[in-house]
Predict the structure.
Amino acid sequence: MELKELYVTASLAQLDLSDEEAETLSALVGQMVEYFSTMREIDVENLEPTTHALLKTNRVREDAVVESAAADTLVGNAPESEGRFIVIPNVL
Amino acid sequence: MNHSARWSNVLLSPDRTESYLDYARGWEKRIGSFLELSPPVPASPPRGDLAGIPFAVKDNIAVEGFNLTCGSKMLAGLKSPYTATAVRRLQEAGALVVGKTNLDEFGMGSSTDTSALARTSNPWDTSLVAGGSSGGSAAAVAAGIVPFALGSDTGGSIRQPAAFCGIYGLKPTYGAVSRYGLVAYASSLEGIGVVAESVGFARRVFEVIRGIDPLDHSSVEYLPSGQTPPRPRLGVVRGLAGLSGEIERAYRRAADLARGLGMEVSEVDLKTFDYVVPAYYTIATAEASANLARFNGIRYGLRPEGTENPEQLVKGARNRGFGDEVKLRILLGTYVLRSGFQDRYYVRAQKIRTAIRNDLQALFGAVDLLLLPVFPTAAFKHGEAGLTPFQQKLADRFTVTANLAGIPALSFPMGSEAGAPLGLQLLAPAFEEERLFRAAESFAEAVPLEHPPGYSEEWRS
Amino acid sequence: MYQAFVGLEIHVQLLTKSKVFCGCRAAFGDEPNTNVCPVCMGYPGVLPTLNRQAIVQAYLVARALDCELSESAVFERKNYFYPDLPKNYQISQLGSPVGRNGRVDLDLGGSRRRVPIREVHLEEDAGKMIHAGDVSLLDYNRAGTPLLEIVTEPVLERGEEAELFLQYFRRMVRYLGVCDGNMEEGSLRCDANVSVNRPGKGLGSKVEIKNMNSSRFVKKALAFEIARQSGLLDRGAPVAQETRLWNENRDLTEAMRSKEEADDYRYFPEPDLPPFKPDAAFLLDVEKGLVELPSARRERLVAEYGLGPDQVDFIIDEKSRADFFERTVALGADPLAAASWLGSDVKRLLNREGVELAESPLTPERLAGLLVLLASGRIHGKIAKQVLEVLFAEGKDPETIIRERAWEQLIDAGAIAKLVDEAIDANEKAAAQIRAGDEKPVGFLVGEIMKATSGRAEPQLVRSVLKERLAKSR
Ligand SMILES: [Mg+2]
Ligand SMILES: [Zn+2]
């Protein structure tokens, strides 16, 4: 795979690649993509894509509030917080 | 049942717990199957169908009070704030979680060697991998530390380590078991299943954990046909190439055995067989690229020091938190979904999936069960002496079909050769798990279960 | 001259109790990160579960906009990284949204026009990020609250039209009870795309405008943007395809910092949620929620009750007000009187007290009671206004108020005759003047009688009895 395509892809995936990593990964990604290309050989002309294997019925839940017992724990799990806010750096 | 009676009181008195831990720790020094091992001290004797029975849970399944690391640096130290539905149902039936088992990072691998947190080896021979990604669960069961463990199977991750470790591994019908609490890798392909020392345990655990869940809208009502043919028609696949000698022999032996057991054996073709692996990896990585996007170091998990803005923080967390195999799959999945490429890869793979389902539907008109190898070889060696990551992916060709079609499959032990266990798998139509159990029980009568050297039950007495 | 093409993208916060994919409270203004759970915080292993009320409301709006309703509404993942988006994908819809190809017919500044609706889709909102110096503070209370996105075709031509459309739309969602329509607080948000070109040349290059948090700003921002693009074309300069923000302090649009790469959201079907296929029972629920919409109601109220244009606009502006009006009329009040009271005295008192009609002590029963008393002559206009004051202050029925205060009009001829006689006795001089044929003091005597009865006596009756008495004794 071309490095340019790899970098565009990495940026969409929020991965920073070192030059060395990019080198290795472009070979590995390229190998898989080439392998994926064998899918061209099979005729899928009149087939619908399967996106949900066995799901046929609607599923909904009633609009009822479930009090969240975990809120404090969840705030506590954040690497950095201030009061009840979760904090991230932002130097403009 | 007596097979569970042997286990039901091991954690109920301090001296028994002591000998239990001695046995487990003895194994753990050699095989490293657990990331966290802390048997509970039950306040009162548990009640229920599985009262007092210890079990282990793959560390990509949530259990409140335990870690949920997924074998990744990204989540090392994260305690789960909630419990997976399957685990909760087992706990309600009286079973006790003793710990969390090692896995390939986020379930991405076939050896458990991509775990960033520990190294797991095969109890039969520590130079061999335990298989993956549920390698820790399979190794713990094979070593006799627990009678069963929960795992997850996205493309063979329960069946392959079960085969490598000489035990049973059930990948249930898609949606039969709630995925609530299973850290998603490829949501439309995977599910929670069980590795077990016996068909009996596999069946009972499955009965407990299955059923529709209000917390998982992809879970379904369990509606089996209720018909299990007394003399099932068994399909064996014509002309399978690339099998190692021992697997080829096991496969032939099983077919012969099936005839001897009164099954009607016939040869079948899988027209879509050559395309299952590329279709599988296209879909799995595409879904993974979205499923793993939530790991960004903001709300939980690894956060790098000294970053100046959100982008640096997120990229820093992902760069340091994810291992190479995970990055590779995220990149692949992102790529196959990109505009301009999506039709060529992702959409095409989903259409191939339809072809595979059609193929199997036709096939299950002619046979009741399908017999397949689990993996082209027995357990391979750690590291360079084993298989490359690419070779491992190609070797998933026997397992991913069940995931793409959403049907159940059970891997079962078929003896051993040269100190390594051999395993094969049976596939059935959706909701026909009972057919798998019955057939596996027939095989079990003819092929006695073997244990790895060092396996013992003496500590219980 | 140029032609402008404006399309709107409206985001509506639905009024559900819980979030769209988890059971957390969908409320605003609470302590940060209190309405959160593992699901809406994007924890590993959790799954979305679809709120039935949210999908009902989504279909309801699509139905109200005359959309083709999807037989299989598919949720998809829209992938992009942003700190306030917990999963770093948004569950939204693309290929098979709830509704498509709808339309709204409305008056756009004098002419009846059709605004085609491209689509209506259901999605989840993100959290909130507050910038505070060298850090940003994250609050995920809003993350996962249900959001409906409505996209119009680019057929609006001026800022005023966009404003009118938005006002219409706001009124509609309030009628349907699916959104409170508060643009300042962000429960209704509007982005626009604007392109300008020579007439007949089709669309020009498209500019997205964001950050317009009132319908007035929508008007101003679009007027500015259309003028800006026209100016560029005049000078032969290209219009850059970009996103611009409305700066309400400077009254202009400004280019947002542009990203190096184009967005690629990599939508794909959400594997965690089966497609939603509305069945007959569901569609019946949707129909039940389908109230008469403001434009239809406006026409009907004019036809049925003969309301004038300003009156009817005031009455239909709020559904609760129109309902109140019709209920009052059904209880026997004169429609024009009811409309005019609601638009004047009632409105004045509501403003003074700072309450909504629905929460005030005034009910349709009470207003109808008051207006019937007035129409039957049991009280007259001035007393009626006083009754309304007391009603607001004490929360009592008009009947009770006039009884307690003995405010009922005096219409008994005998009693009035007695009052007239007393007045004649007390004002001999004036009486004599009238008897002599000078009508001038009649008004004075009537006034004395009204004063003596605190205005309760029926003035016409007093006048006629008075004249009769003074004529007889001549
Ligand atoms: Mg949107
Ligand atoms: Zn929540």
Remarks:
- Strands of chain A lie at 81-82, 85-89.
- The pocket of magnesium ion (ligand 1) is lined by residues C 92, 123, 149 (CB under 6 Å).
